[in-house]
Amino acid sequence: MKLGLRLWSYIREEASHGRKAPIDPFTRESDRPSASQGVPLGGMGSGSISRGFRGEFAHWQIIPGSCEMSPVMENQFSIFITRGGNKKYSSVLAPGQHDCLKKSSDDGISSWDWKLRGDRSTYHALFPRAWTVYDGEPDPELKVSCRQISPFIPHNYEESSLPTSVFVYTIVNTGKERAKVSLVMTWANSIGGLSHHSGGHVNEPFIGENGVSGVLLHHKTANGNPPVTFAVAACENQNVNVTVLPAFGLSRESSITAREMWGTLIQDGSFDRDNFIASPSRPSSLGDTVCAAVCASTWVEPHGRCTVVFSLAWSSPKVKFKKGNAYYRRYTKFYGTSPRSSINMVQDALMKYKHWEEEIDKWQTPILRDDRLPEWYKITLFNELYFLVAGGTVWIALLSVDPSGE
C-alpha cells in the first residue's frame, strides 16, 4: 500500500513538471499504434511528428528514445467563411468526435466549433504526401483540399534531412457569392505528452523574406534535453493576407484565451497586424499551456479558386543520448545550429515545395504507371517507407559535440 502511494505521488509530481514517469500502472494507454496512422511530417533523422487521417498531430518523436503517441489537440487547422455579410461558417478541420475535448475548460479548445461530421471528408496517403478533401463542410458551397508534402526525395541528401513540411490548401468556391475565407493554423508550445506544462516556454512573431511570416515557439525541454524551436508560417501574396496571434492560453487566467482567439476570427477573419511587432511572450508558468495562431485570409470569387500555403519546421540541432553522447543532426550542416534556423527552413520550404513535388513525381510516376505491378504492391512500396521517418531514425552530422555543448 505504501509503495503504491509513493509511486502515485511520484507520477503526479512528474506530471506537474511536464514529464512522464517511466513506470505508470495507473494510466491506461489509449493511443496504441494502429493502421489509422497517417503520413508523418519532415525528412529523415531530425525527429518526426505524425499526422493522422483526421488531421491530428500525434506520435511525437522529437527527443530520441521518447515517443508520445497521444495527439496534441490544440494543433489544428480551422476555417472561417463569410458570404454576403450575413452567412458565416466556422469549424476546426478535424472530422468526427473527439472525446478528449470533454476534459477541456470552457475557455480552452472545447469552446471552438468542432462541426465536421466527416461523412463528406476523404483522406488519401502516398508517402511522402497526403491529401485531405473537405467537400461542402462546413460551407456547402465550398470545397477545400489540403496537400501535405515533406521533403523525402531520392538521392537528395540535403533536403531529405530537413525537419519541415508544407500544407497546400486549395479552396474552390462553387457558389454564386464571393466568399472571404480564413484558414488558421494553431500550434501549442509542446513536444507531445505533458511537455507543454513544464513551464518556461516562449513565443514570438517573425517576418521573414518573400512574404513568409509566422510565429516562433521556443520550447524548454525537461530532463536536460536540448531545446526545440518550432516555426509556424504562411506565405503572403497579392491575394493572401497573413496575420498572427503570437500567444494565447487555455485557462481563464490567460491574457488572451482560446475562446477569445476564436471569437476574434469569427468577427474579423484575421488578427491585428500590430501583433507582428509584439515582444516575445513571457515564459509560460508551470502547468500552463501557451499556443500560437497563424491566419491566412483570402477572397474567393464565385466559381473561382485560391491557394493558401502553410509550413511547419522545428529546430532541434543537438541530439543527446542517455549515456551523455551528443551530436548535431545532419540538417545543421546546411542550416547551422541556431534555434532560429527554423525560420530559414519554413522560408525555403514555402519557396521550394513545388520543386520537391516535381522530384517526387519523377520518382513515383514510372512505378505507379507500370501495369505489370499489382496495385497493392505500388501503394505498399511507397507507404511503408514512412518508417524511415517515423521509426526513430537519427541522422547526424559527422562531427560530435561533448555533453557541455562545445
Write the layout of secondary structure elements.
Layout: H1 2-16, E1 40-41, E2 48-51, E3 57-61, E4 76-83, E5 87-92, E6 121-126, E7 129-135, E8 142-149, E9 164-173, E10 179-188, E11 202-207, E12 212-219, E13 228-235, E14 240-249, H2 258-268, E15 290-300, E16 305-315, E17 318-320, E18 326-329, H3 332-335, H4 341-368, H5 375-383, H6 387-390, E19 396-401
Antiparallel strand pairs: 1-2, 2-3, 4-5, 4-10, 6-7, 7-8, 8-9, 9-16, 10-15, 11-12, 12-13, 13-16, 14-15, 17-18, 18-19
Task: Describe the model.
By secondary structure, this protein is an alpha+beta fold. It has one domain. Helix content is 17%, strand content 33%. The protein has six helices and 19 strands. The chain has helices at residues 2-16, 258-268, 332-335, 341-368, 375-383, 387-390, and strands at residues 40-41, 48-51, 57-61, 76-83, 87-92, 121-126, 129-135, 142-149, 164-173, 179-188, 202-207, 212-219, 228-235, 240-249, 290-300, 305-315, 318-320, 326-329, 396-401. The strands form four sheets. The protein has an eight-stranded antiparallel beta sheet with strand order 6-7-8-9-16-13-12-11. Strands 5-4-10-15-14 form a five-stranded antiparallel beta sheet, covered by helices on one side. The longest helix is centred in the last third of the chain and has 28 residues, at 341-368. The radius of gyration is 21 Å and the shape is globular.
